[in-house]
Amino acid sequence: MTNIKIEITDQKEENLDYIDLIDENYTLYLKIKSMIDADEETAKIDKKITDLSGIVNKIDQKLNNKKFIERAPSDIINQNISNKAKIENDILSLRSLRDTLSD
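Request: output the structure for the sequence above.
Response:
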């Protein structure tokens, strides 16, 4: 990795060779599209999304189960709600990455 270039700018990159990683404050553009197999990476991302969606469905089944809600301690219920929210956020991030790779 001797060919590294870091550039800080207020300009948005429109180059299709880049993928962008976005958080609240910054957008990071990585020029890696030419170094990876986008189809292979997209397939991996799709599998991860499917796996995480399965976990969300299991959590939903628990949270929609009246007996579980009646018997489970509130911290366990809250933990399931929190886990579901985190996983749903991860799914959104993965979908965004997949969309970036397929551009």
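Helices lie at 38-63, 66-71, 74-102.
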